Amino acid sequence: MTSPESLRRRRSRWSVASALTGLLLTLSIPAAVPSAAESIPDRGDAYMGMGVLAHDGEAATDDDAPVSVPRATQTEGVDVASYQGEVAWNTLWNSGVRWAYTKAAEGTYYSNPYFQQQYDGSNDAGMIRGAYHFATPDTTGGATQADYFVDHGGGWSKDAKTLPGALDIEWNPYGDACYGKSKTGMVDWIRDFLDRYKDRTGRDAVIYTATSWWADCTGNYAGFGATNPLWVARYASSAGTLPAGWSSYTMWQYTSSGPTVGDHDRFNGSVDKVKSLATG
């Protein structure tokens, strides 16, 4: 099993290599392209925001569009994956974190070996928690991956402390940004995942994505906004313009380098609203 320290080093190499290449391209300086071993992670190593960090960097600057949603009372959260290993959940609770998502699965070939410590540990600390699935639409179908996700920790129960599962659909860290799919093909894949997840759990899954990826890879499809909560990724001072179909976000991943472990997020509402989403 890959150690947490090895995963951290791999994440750092991938992020630094991607950022350096982007900087040199911006400056029009010929750059030595990082080797495949440095720039492409191993299957299973992907985490929420990996593609966002590589594509947009830590501080997005596209502030030409107005903020879509006013800043209201918000509740701090985190998302974690296997590279964090055993998480100090009490420390996060004491820092103000009240909800958490843990990576459960990726494709149909990987499940997080630290899932139980991370998922149960956040709950034991008093947090409302959920699980997420890193989608790989180029490997298997949406319904197949939804089944794998539910069978590996992504289910839901009406206990007021379990959030609906989240589909992490973003830039592909292993190859083509849109996983080799047409815009229509991508929408169909996402719909298949969401339909099967609802059939299995009775809940509409959360969709985690970034606005520019959504535009490029789904053609600004607007058909999921009425049913599926949005978790938007944008590392800036505001969530900015949202993907087509949503007039507001439920969650916002605002940084990948928070003051404590994990990517940091804000829920668009009070803790009571977080509990309402968990309750269904």
TrEMBL record:
Its EC number is 3.2.1.17. The keyword Transit peptide does not apply. GO terms for biological process: carbohydrate catabolic process; cell wall macromolecule catabolic process; defense response to bacterium; killing of cells of another organism; peptidoglycan catabolic process. GO terms for cellular component: extracellular region. Residues 1-31 form the signal peptide. Coiled coil: none annotated. It is an enzyme of class 3 (hydrolase). Keywords: Antimicrobial, Bacteriolytic enzyme, Disulfide bond, Glycosidase, Hydrolase, Secreted, Signal. It holds the Pfam family Glyco_hydro_25. It is found in: Secreted. CDD domains: GH25_CH-type (cd06412). SUPFAM superfamilies: (Trans)glycosidases. It catalyses: Hydrolysis of (1->4)-beta-linkages between N-acetylmuramic acid and N-acetyl-D-glucosamine residues in a peptidoglycan and between N-acetyl-D-glucosamine residues in chitodextrins. GO terms for molecular function: lysozyme activity. Gene3D superfamilies: Glycosidases (3.20.20.80). Belongs to the glycosyl hydrolase 25 family. PANTHER family: LYSOZYME. This enzyme has both lysozyme (acetylmuramidase) and diacetylmuramidase activities. This is lysozyme.
